[in-house]
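Researcher: Good morning. I'm working through a list of sequences from a screen, and I'd like to move beyond sequence-only analysis. For each chain I'm collecting a predicted structure so we can compare shapes side by side. This is the next one on the list. No need for commentary yet; just the structure.
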Amino acid sequence: MQCSALSILVVEDHPTIARQVVAFLEGLRWQADHAASGALAIELATREAYDVVLLDLNLPDIDGLEVCRAIKARAPRNVPVLMLTARDAFEDKARGFKGGADDYVTKPFDLRELALRCEALARRGRLHLEQEMRVGPLTLLAREMQALYGDAPLALTQLGFRILSALCEAHPHAVPRSALTHVLWGANPPDSDALKSHIYALRRQLALAGAPDMIVTIPQLGYRLVLERTAHV
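Model: Good morning. Structure tokens for this chain:
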């Protein structure tokens, strides 16, 4: 069973290889964006919802492993990363997987195999998105971008849902303000303190659903989800 049209981020600094990969994927009627640097790759991957990121390890500005870690930490959802590299030693592959890669292809590669691997990773990722995430009385339905407190739906914006997802995934640990800012706006945050406004709106929706103050401000760090204050629902 094939996936529907996929959205792929191709991170490759070699112009000829990048053109070939993008042209092949677009020939499948998939959407393919291109980033020739690690910085642009992180910006795009934390702003857009891609099905798969094709990531070259040898980039001009940031090592591919660092880019992979950044994408895994900051992307709005767990996007699969398929590493493309000429490094074929076992140690290099091990470093790739430990850095968060979901699959690994060495150059030169068959574009048809690349597409098959993208489909397999996308199917795995979509199955993950269909699952519910439960943290205490909170239920997050990633596919519908819907959150519930007990049985009460929360009227959240897309950004509010992303904040709550990040807090739930990190629980019981705090999420730094910088990480939340990247989740929401990537490398281009607004000038105003918009994060504080979105946190306020999220707290208000939780209060309207009957939840106690579950989002605690950690001075000079960020925010943390606290369930100890949660009443039974």
